[in-house]
Amino acid sequence: MISPTVRFAPSPTGYLHIGNARTALMNYLYARRNGGRFILRFDDTDTGRSRRDYADAIVEDLAWLGVEPDLVVRQSERGDLYDAAAQRLRAVDRLYACYETPEELDRKRKRQLARHLPPVYDRAARRLTADERADLEAEGRRPHWRFLLEEREVAWDDLCRGPQHFAAGSLSDPVLIRGDGSYLYTFTSIVDDADLGVTHVIRGEDHVANTAVQIEIFEALGHKPPAFGHHNLLTATGGEGLSKRTGSLSLRSLREEGYEAMAVASLAVLIGSSEAVVPANSLEELGERIGLDKLSRSPATFDPAELKGLNHRQLAEMPYSAVSARLDAMGIGGGERFWLAVRPNLELLADAEAWWARIEGPVEAVADPEDRQFLAEAADLLPRAPWDGDVYETWIAAVKEATGRKGKGLFRPIRLALTGLEQGPELKAMLPLIGREKAIRRLTGRA
């Protein structure tokens, strides 16, 4: 296999959502797994909606996921390439001027539908004489330009969906240049892919219908088309599609809510595949587990509740070395001993702050009146410092023997007194962190 060159080509018109992340990661992992190159290309020719701050946010969000492009390009800086390619198509009579207004085209489509005909453009503009074109331009009309499709079947072997074929003759000749002279994405994307040496185009299945047209344009420009792969899409839990403009499950919001980047990446890639959805520790590991041939043909639902569970599993397996700097930045002490104690009880890393507060105190004393004497006895039985790792078992055994309590009657009052909560990390790990003096104060109601 040749070393692949892939691209991720977002429009900087909003923040990336989890569906965009799926496409970016599919490309990035494919390139890295096969020793290839990953290009980030901003499709920013829509000057009315494209914004530089969105482009900067896209770079930042990809970096959060661990995706570092080998090259960044912007379509807004490549106009000369598009002009030259358009001239090549005109020279071989594959790009022609059309003068119909949107209203006229709409009326044509309605008439065709009324006659039970497909609403395909009738190529009337190709029958205009030079004088007729001159008259239309004298009226102030400016042409839009359509690509002349060959009426043939176009076939390709899709990397995700297998052999595909499409009858290009059943489609309207696509508009490549608007009346104001601006280029449409279909055209600029092809010119860029050819110029940048893109060998594999991996994108969502909503682009399948565009592929036959794009293959014809590649060939008309004298280029070999890249390999195409169309992966299944992610939808929200209500079945609706995701959109940058609505902010649906944006990477920015997920990051701000405290989710781990690898939990987000793992779910974005593995959902809707034959692989088990379990967190990967790195993009390298994730790339080894997923392949385009493992993807389902059906859309996959991205459920935030599933992300919570995956994030919990990610944290529960995370070594202290991976979080120590972040814990320090949050003002959390206790070192590795604290982390190992609380990580099984975290949904988000920020939850660790609440457990550190339970250790540092103060903690509101919680005890039923009938348990106060029992807790005072338990306080008297706390071993002297220093404590070893078995202090909790030694102490509980002594309390059980001295008081005769067992089960819930033994453990519940002690947990409530020490932490103020009925559930949480194992007291075996928490007690040494709380320390003897604080433990005595809490057990005796002086916390």
TrEMBL record:
Gene behind the chain: gltX
- The superkingdom listed in its UniProt entry is Bacteria
Organism name: Microbaculum marinum
Q: Motif span ('KMSKS' region)? A: 241-245
Q: Name one GO biological process term.
A: glutamyl-tRNA aminoacylation
**GO molecular function, one example?**
glutamate-tRNA ligase activity
Ranges where the Glutamyl/glutaminyl-tRNA synthetase class Ib catalytic domain occurs: 6-307
**Its quaternary structure?**
Monomer.
Instruction: Give EC number(s), comma-separated.
Output: 6.1.1.17
InterPro entries, sorted:
aa-tRNA-synth_I_cd-bd, aa-tRNA-synth_I_codon-bd_sub2, aa-tRNA-synth_I_CS, aa_tRNA-synth_I_cd-bd_sf, Glu-tRNA-ligase_bac/mito, Glu/Gln-tRNA-synth, Glu/Gln-tRNA-synth_Ib_cat-dom, GluQ/Sye
What are the GO cellular component annotations? cytoplasm
The primary site where this protein sits is: cytoplasm
Any idea which UniProt keywords this protein has? Aminoacyl-tRNA synthetase, ATP-binding, Cytoplasm, Ligase, Nucleotide-binding, Protein biosynthesis
Main role?
A: Catalyzes the attachment of glutamate to tRNA(Glu) in a two-step reaction: glutamate is first activated by ATP to form Glu-AMP and then transferred to the acceptor end of tRNA(Glu).
Protein name per its UniProtKB record? Glutamate--tRNA ligase
Q: Which Pfam families match?
A: Anticodon_2, tRNA-synt_1c
Concerning its family, UniProt says:
Belongs to the class-I aminoacyl-tRNA synthetase family. Glutamate--tRNA ligase type 1 subfamily.
User: Where is the Aminoacyl-tRNA synthetase class I anticodon-binding domain positioned along the sequence?
Assistant: 368-444
Q: Does the keyword Calcium apply?
A: no
Q: Position of motif 'HIGH' region?
A: 10-20
Location(s) in or outside the cell: Cytoplasm
